[in-house]
Amino acid sequence: MPFEYQVSDEIAIAIPNPKRDAEPLYKLVESSRKELGPWLPWANKMSSAKDELDFFGGSLSPCRRREVAKFGAAISKSTGGDDQL
Predict the structure, then answer these.
(1) Is residue 81 part of a domain?
(2) Is residue 82 part of a domain?
(3) Which of 26, 44, 69, 76 shows the greatest Cβ crowding within 10 Å of its Cβ?
(4) 80 lies in some domain
(5) Is position 84 within any domain?
(6) How far is CA 80 from the centre of its chain?
(7) In the sheet where 11-14 sits, what is the strand order?
(8) How does residue 83 score in pLDDT terms, banded at 50, 70 and 90?
(9) Residues 6+ apart with CB under 8 A from 26
(10) 12-44: b or e for each residue (b if 16 or more CB lie within 10 Å)?
(11) CATH code at 67?
(12) CA-to-CA separations, 47 to 21, 39, 74, 79, in angstroms, rounded
């Protein structure tokens, strides 16, 4: 069930789409691993986009069962962000 809420012209909140989001998210984790690692130990365990895809598969299962909701934020490239996530 796709969901996206446009907060402003630059920001949207959406349920992650594993096939679309795994590769760009992995690239962001890879480029920021040194900063993320001390605070988010899972970042040190991600070694490929497939790891992200596997993570999405497991973490979104409760969403599919309507037990929890998980969202991601997308920031437009015009503000320095990446509109793919």
Answers:
(1) no
(2) no
(3) 26
(4) no
(5) no
(6) 17
(7) 4-6, 11-14, 72-75
(8) very low
(9) 46, 48, 49, 51, 52
(10) bebbbeeeebbeebbebbeeeeeebeeeeeebe
(11) 3.40.630.30
(12) 15, 17, 23, 28
The count of domains in the chain is 1
Q: What is the pLDDT of residues 44-55, one digit of tens each?
A: 988 998 888 787
pTM over cut 0.70: no
* Structural domain harbouring 64: 4-75
Q: At CA 1, angle to CA 67 and CA 7, rounded to 5?
A: 95
The pLDDT tens digits for 2-29 are 677 888 888 887 777 778 888 888 898 8
| Alpha helices (runs of H) in 1-85, residue ranges in sequence order | 18-31, 33-36, 49-64
